[in-house]
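Format notes (please read before filing issues)

Several people have asked whether sequences and structure tokens are stored in separate files. They are not. Every record keeps both together, in the order shown below: the sequence lines, then the token lines. Line labels are part of the format and must not be stripped during preprocessing.
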Amino acid sequence: MTFSKVAFLFPGQGSQSVGMGKDFYEQSKIGKEFFDRADQVLGRPLSKICFEGPEEELRKTWNAQPGLFLCGIIGYELLKAEGIEPAAAAGHSLGEYSAFYAARVFDLAQGLELVRVRGEAMNEASEARKGVMAAILGLEASKLQEVVKRASAKGIVTLANFNSPDQVVISGEPAAVEEAVALASADGAKRAIMLPVHGAFHSPLMSSAVPKMKAALEKAKLNDPEIDFISNFEASPVLNNEDVRHALSNQITSCVQWSKTIEAFICGGVDCFVEVGPGKVLSGLVRRINREAKTLNIGTMAELPGVVSQLKA
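Then the structure lines:
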């Protein structure tokens, strides 16, 4: 099968798992070089945490974020070494940093520095204001908005990710999110489950991280994207480096418009999505958004040959 336009998608926090990137490190020069560089830049054994855990340590924002960033860009570099480059890219929340790397907005050193600042700033925000997230599946948008409104009596809770037509993630203070989960279940949601993340991302509880991220982005050397790019923040094209700064500083507290992002790509002619990084969460969401969409995955070395052969066919 021949594809006319391929988009690379990069997962965000929640897709991490103990062991991620280990085969990249052990079986590729690129993987070893990038993880060794990250350990040096961050001043801690990130590689060991990604490869061996424990899970609770990997789940922490300041570990999960650079780990996922690395796995995404290593996967991209392995495909690039095979002569495969995307025509478009996007990332889910933290995944936008890997996607911007693939769009050549910044290099490894600059990307690591930005992700380090983001992870630490969001970790500090999470520690200062404890929060949680939950996924609500199979509940009409109007009913979910009413659920969130009612649950707000228990504290801050907001819509955080529009992942697909039947999956929305909520975020906020524990009591309010737990109340929303209970109300959603009672109102007919197919599933309402708490997520394995370390804070209330994409909610007002993250507001203290925004000034730190803005300051880091202002100092950063950023290029204009070299390929088509749709942002999480507004599901709109990112055309230049100022758009990059705007998108990355605003996405911390804003809702992820993932459904609209994928729909925009499909309207723009994308006929194959390659999820680059751990897990298959984004591939599943793409198929929920459009059943006809073709998806491929490269999260391990074992998956690389099959993806390469299909993309080169």
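For reference, the curators noted about this record: Residues 6-127+204-312 form a domain with the Malonyl-Coenzyme A Acyl Carrier Protein; domain 2 fold (CATH 3.40.366.10). The chain has two domains: 6-127+204-312, 131-194.
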